[in-house]
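Proteins fold. Shown next:

***
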Amino acid sequence: MHPNLSFEQAPPISVPYRFFMTAPWFGVAAGLLLAILGPEVLESRWTSGALAATHLLVAGFMLQAMCGALLQFVPVAAGGNVWRPRLLTAFVHPVLIVAAVLLPIAFLTTRGPLFIAAAYLFGVAIAAYVVVVGLALLRTPGRGPTLLALRLAIVSLGVTAVFGIVLATSLGYGRNLPLVQITHVHAAWGLGGWALLLLVGVSYYVVPMFQLTPPYPVRFTRVLPPALIGVLVLWSWQAGGVVAPWQQAVFFSGMLLAASYAAMTLILQGRRRRKIPDATLTFFRGAMVCLIAIAVSSLAFVHNEDLGNHPRAAIWLGLLAIPGVFVSAISGMLYKILPFLNWLHLQRLAGFGAAPPNMREMIPEAAMVGQMRLHFAALATLLLAVPLPPLTRPAGFLFAASCVWLGVNLAGGVRNYLRFKARILSAAACPGS
């Protein structure tokens, strides 16, 4: 076990689990939306269906899972004292759910009041979350590259929310703003800042701990997070209308940084002490391969303008990034985090004189592997649907089914926790039996 984990600061198990249990069902909704609307969704990133499905995943699946994970990770791994985590969760979680439901409906119906309502709900929920978690990260006495990456990730979440609110209120009120440019900046900070930086920071800690790899090189861990932020700042400047002669160099730098992180992770995983693969490892490897594929595809699109200017090029990159990188990595992490949290809380309940159930008893390995295979089958079908539009509906159904299976597996893990907890409490109440 990692020597620097602060188990005594762990929040109540219900805090992260409320987010974790919700996340997969936004993926189900996104898959069903693809299946219902069909090939027209993937014609361009700007179709109402594509925008709705995208936000079901990024503002639903990803945001739910990442917020829940960070509320657990900050106090336990970073040593930050999150103020009243139960109260924060009771407010933020339902507000984010309502906002993440309203926004896709707004894209599908183009009703201004729905955009405005979603914008304000996201604004108050994310503001509360960023302030509380950000203060915990600032006040912690901890040091190191993981903490730096988490601090930059929470800043990136705030920046993403600001641009998203500007976009949603502009659509709601009919303001005449450069929406395309703002969207580019919003997406860059959301995926390249908040999501990637959080993944990087958590990876520094959990990849060596859970996957038994050597640690990431110290210099690499220190340079990567601020370098990513530097690229995002320069990208935002040029996307805002200040087109510089070195803009292509900025783009290439961002792709190189992302690919270097993926390559380093794959190298470390190849040197892991435990050679038997599991679902988490395969999910993470798949995510890293997709991240490298994004870099390669992006560079190909830059050198082949006809290919890069095709409306489906952005769809290809989006599918690699969202279902490919982030849904894969998050799914794999959930399969490690949930059993570990079950074990941790049951150990504390039973006392160190008693042995809690094994982590492998929480979610059956066969169920995790089966869901993982279905996820990657869905991802492959989604990617094939870009050049072969008739595959859109089957891809949507497959992706929805994989998310249902993920949700069922996580719910099963929670049921096992409750079952083992009841058994421990019963044994404590009847010590002589």
Q: What stands out?
A: The chain has a mean pLDDT of 90. Residues 7-416 form a domain with the Cytochrome C Oxidase; Chain A fold (CATH 1.20.210.10). The two ends are 33 Å apart (CA to CA). The chain has one domain: 7-416.
